[in-house]
């Protein structure tokens, strides 16, 4: 993910897409595109075996996770919440990265420190509008951290104490701003500048171990697989992969599975696309390949303002079976449906529960009929039971129409149709 410093302001990054990397990726050798994960089949569940948590399952947790990087120098994080999976209240993006904070170097104290430019600071300070809406919809918000041409990086800490001191700053940012984790992008460090050390095999492992201790098991730590932190770390010797939740390909428009021991394909993103540069057909093909080969993450970069639902649908349909809806009303409701047999007929039970503050009018419709109930309030639920009569056949899908102050939302809830005899 290439982001260059702006000549107008030393600490402010120019809002440019990763053109050089995207071009390099599109021209990558065929052998690189065909890379597979030879250990995937044997390492499934290995994270749990190392004593680290698996990410908490959620509705649709069998779908590959959708990740988006937002260049906050030119775009708002709030744009992420504009997209939901059509017919659901699920977000299109499971993880959203604030791109990017920096690891800087203090030439007086000879220590690395965490730095925010003006726009990152504005984003964090405006968490009520830029971060909380995403989290309410179910999107995890992480702070991405990037080198800044000063010699400081994740791969050149020379002691556990130095790595722990930087981990303290990262954890403090997560806790202060109510974030869901940290993403590492080891680019532009310029190791050796300002008399800094060269990369070593244990630095990043020390940092990961210290950060996991400070964040606990419920926060996310992710890795953009580029630079010395990825390339020089003694992964097999340190067990550092046990501290990571996910790792992914850094080259847009390309297929390049990460190569990390003790992690499974469910934790890897082999496909990565630039939403402003990768052709839609290529993005769709990479999404389908992600599903076909069993990888657990799909990475997107540079979400801008405006309606990109058509482009995103080409990604979400292979990954989730749903198109992408733009600025659809979103209500905090849950729907569950169960079909059973009573005699030779189907009995369909649908439960709708609301945590929304506003009163909602709800209509439940299936092939067996339709029924409405008004003014469903926070903490309330309704159960509708329908019976097939006169040879009626249940069709396997319930439509729940929710009518509230933000408009009308149709939720589609599939169910398994039993074979009644």
Could you outline the blueprint of secondary structure elements for this entry?
Elements lengths: L18 H8 L3 H4 L6 H4 L2 H4 L15 E7 L11 E3 L9 E12 L4 E5 L2 H8 L1 H4 L1 H6 L2 E8 L12 H18 L3 E5 L17 H13 L4 E5 L3 H4 L3 H4 L7 E3 L5 E2 L12 E7 L5 H13 L4 E5 L7 H12 L3 E3 L6 E10 L2 E10 L5 E7 L2 E8 L4 E7 L9 E8 L2 E8 L7
Helix pairs in contact: 8-9, 12-13
Question: What does this molecule look like?
Answer:
This protein is an alpha/beta fold. The protein has two domains: 19-326, TIM Barrel; 333-414, Immunoglobulin-like. The protein is built from 13 helices and 19 strands. It has helices at residues 19-26, 30-33, 40-43, 46-49, 118-125, 127-130, 132-137, 160-177, 203-215, 228-231, 235-238, 280-292, 309-320, and strands at residues 65-71, 83-85, 95-106, 111-115, 140-147, 181-185, 220-224, 246-248, 254-255, 268-274, 297-301, 324-326, 333-342, 345-354, 360-366, 369-376, 381-387, 397-404, 407-414. Strands 1-3-5-6-7-8-10-11 form an eight-stranded parallel barrel. α8 (160-177) packs parallel to α9 (203-215) and α12 packs parallel to α13. The longest helix is centred in the middle third of the chain and has 18 residues, at 160-177. The termini are far apart.
CATH architecture of the largest domain: Alpha-Beta Barrel
Number of helices: 13
CATH class of the largest domain: Alpha Beta
Outline type? elongated
Superfamily at the CATH H level of the largest domain? Glycosidases
Which terms summarize this structure?
Immunoglobulin-like, 13 helices, disordered N terminus, TIM Barrel, alpha/beta, elongated, 421 residues, 2 domains, 29% strand, eight-stranded parallel β-barrel, four-stranded antiparallel sheet
